[in-house]
What we know:
- By secondary structure, the protein is α+β, with helices and mostly antiparallel strands.
- It folds into 2 domains: 3-204, no CATH class; 222-348, no CATH class.
- Helices cover 29% and strands 20% of the residues.
- The chain contains 11 helices and 12 strands.
- The chain has an 8-stranded mixed beta sheet.
- The longest helix has 20 residues, at 299-318.
- The protein is globular and about 65 Å long.
Amino acid sequence: MTSKRFTKEAWGKAVEGLRESYKVWVPAKEGAHHFFKEYTDDITPDFEATKTRMSPKHTVFPQSERMFEYSLESSDADANIMKDTPKDYSPQAVVGVRPCDAYSFNLVKINFDNKEYRDPWWANRYESTTFIGMGCNEPCSTCFCDSVGSGPFDEKGLDVLVYDMGDAYVAKALNEKGEKALAAMNGGQDAAEADLTAAADMAAKVEAPSKVPTDKLRSQKLNDLYDADFWDELASGCLNCGACTFACPTCWCFDIQDESWNREGEVRKRQGDRIRNWDSCMFPLFTLHASGHNPRGLKVQRVRQRFMHKLKYYVDKYDGGTLCVGCGRCVEACPVNIDIRQVFELMNDFSK
Length: 352
């Protein structure tokens, strides 16, 4: 596989050159935080950013997406027909994605693209995306990726892995997608064997600063965890704000709504869209039935559902680790300091 070495200046120009062949997403600062933004002339990429405030899951799973459109105008030839809205599946590249975030797409894929069901919008967009990852030389204090199947220089889910060597970047293609992306990036030179050795040696010394236990989650009895006595205290301060779920790269809940409008923009129910929006299991309305019954009407039930899903239901159903990549975003985003690292310990070490 191809490996290239870029000076910092050459790397910036090479990423900019990718825009000729890809829709490019890059980390860029907005206010006090960094977010993945579409690379346009108004955007200044910042590849020194340690971690973006939000994960780049929106590049494949938009926060709001038009699914279908319809018309009730009798004069329209397609009146009363629900039609798929145009979608953009052109090649795109997410540059600077961290290994934990790239790994998250592997976990989420189990929900959106499996043997029983394939979400065409998610799957087509994912297949058209190239992930050019940036290894973490200095993981954040809240990161615990090593404990949950990833790592600061993990390659799972990536097409290219980039090592920041201080004065230069060393980029290594991991598959055909990565080969194609590196071929489209001008300005670099073939990496020498010494470059690759130095990069590997540097990566081998980096560990996530936080650790969580996971060894007993699979063997814990589901009903015992469900009825555990720590849920009330854990949930007591929760505001059900949903910050944790929106920041999380592996939360996939969504709601579907119909929005009607007329050609002047007023709501008169003659034309409309069916829209998919991110939703959250933390919201009281998430499980509210049309009858008025809510099976998770209490705050403690919603908090328990979030953590049981990620650390028990998913573990039991797929036997492939937790639905968490250790990015630490939920720890940083929670306004009342609920810490998923503590929940790992409570659930993993629970004894009835």
